[in-house]
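> @MW can you paste both from yesterday?
MW: sure, first one:
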Amino acid sequence: MAATAITLPTSFDQTKAINPWLIAITVTLATFMELLDTAIANVSLPHIAGGLATSYDESTWVLTSYLVANAVVLPLSAWLSRVFGRKNYYMGCVALFSVSSLMCGLAPSLGLLIFFRVLQGIAGGGLAPVEQAILVDTFPASKRAAAFALYSMAIVTAPAIGPPLGGWITDSFSWRWVFFINVPIGIISLILTSRLLSDPPEFKQEVEADRKAGRLKVDYLGILLIALGFACLEVVLDRGERLDWF
C-alpha cells in the first residue's frame, strides 16, 4: 500500500485523505442544480408573464438571456479557471448562480428578472467545463468512467424531472420558487466545495508557468468577438423561427 501511495501521480494527492466519490457527488450536485434550473424555468413562462404583467413572447427572454450568457461564457471557462484558480472560479460560479437565483425570485419586473438571468447564465456557463476537469484530476483513468457515469446521471435526470417539478411548483406555490429552490442546493455545494476541493499541484505549476510566460494576458478583443458571435448565434437559433428569419 505504501508503494502504491508513493507512485500515485501528483494530480491525485488531494484525494488521498478524501474519498473521491464525495468530490464527484459535490460537482454532480451543482450540475444537477444548473440543469434543473434550465428545464424548470421553461414551463413557468406563462406564470412569469402573468405575474409580471407582460406578454408570453416577452417572457421568453427569460430563457433566451440565460442561454446567450451561458453560450458566451462556456468557451472562456478554461482560461478563466487558470486566471483565478480552478477552485476559486468554481466556487465563484456556484455563489453567483445561487445569489442570482435568489434575486430572480425577488425580481419585481421583467427587466430585472432578465438581468439576473444573464448573471445566472454567466455563472452556469462556467460550471460544466470546470466540473469535468475536476473529475479528471480527482479520479485515475481506471475509475473515470464510473465517475462520469454518476455525473451523466445528473445530466439526464435534471432535464427529465424539471418540467413536471416546475409545473407542480408554479401551480402549488409561485413561479418565484422555481428560482428559490436553487439557493439551498447552492449553499450545500459551496460548503462541500470549500471543504473537499483543492487545486492539484500540477495544475498550479502549469498556471504559474503560463503566468510567467505571459500566456494568461487578457485578450479583450478576442473576448468581445466571442461574446458577440455566440450571443448573435444563440439569439438567431432561439428566436429566429418566431421572428420569421428562417
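MW: second:
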Amino acid sequence: MPKEAESFLLIVAVSITLSYYISYDIPELISGIEKWYKLFSDLSIGVIINFIFYVFQVYIPRREEEKATLRIIDPDLTKICQGIQEILLVAQTYLPGFEKGKIHIAESSVYYMKMTTADAGEGWTRHFDLYKDFSQLKKGVVETTDRLLSSALLQGCDKEVVELLGKLQRNGFLQALEAAENNKFDPDCYYTDFENCYSDFCAIFEGLKSYVSEYKVQYIRPLTLAEIAFFEARMSLAKQAKGGIPHIYMKGCN
C-alpha cells in the first residue's frame, strides 16, 4: 500500500479518537441531545473497533505478505531492471536518434565497458553486435516478466508492481527494437513505435527499479583501440560460455 494511504489511515484513526474524547462532556453542556449523543458515541466506538480490527487483522498482515513477496521476487525484478538498463544504455550510446524513430549506425560491432560510476576505471567489458545482441537482452527481460506474471506469487504482491509488470509486457518498445534489429536498423525507415513507446517504457523502468532492494545505477563507455586489443586477447584465451554476450571483467588501459 502506498505511503499516502498509510498516512491517511493514521489521520483517520487519530481524528476519530480525538473527536470521541473531545465530545465526551457535550451532554452536560447542551441539554436535550443525550440520545443523539449516545447514538453517535456508539457509532464512534464501533468505527474505532472496526478500524483497529482492520489494521491488525487485514492491513498489517497484507503489508507483511507484500514485503515477503517482494523479497522472493527481488532477484527477478533485479534481472529485469538490469536488462532494461543495459538495453537503454547501449541504445542511447550507439543508436543516436532512435527515440525519434530515425536511426543511423556508424558501426554495428561495438565494444564497451559497463561501470558502476561514470569515471570508474574498471568494469564488465563487452563486445556487442547491434544487429543481433539486443534480442538476447530482450529475451531475458521478456521471459522473466512473463514468468513472474504467470506466477501465483503475485497474488500477494504490491498491486503497483503487478501493474508495472503488466504495462511492461504490453509495451511495444522491445518488440519495436527487435523488429528494427532484424531490419539492420535501416536508416531509410521511420520506426514510429520507438517514438510512441519510448517514454512509457522509461517510466515503467523507473517505477520497477524503485522496488528493487539494491538497485545499482550503471554507466557504459566505448573502449579505446588499446582496450579492444586487450579485450580480444583475453577473450581468445578465456573459455567462452555457450551463448550470451561475450564479456570479461577488466581494468581500463591507458
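> thanks! Residues 60-251 form one domain.
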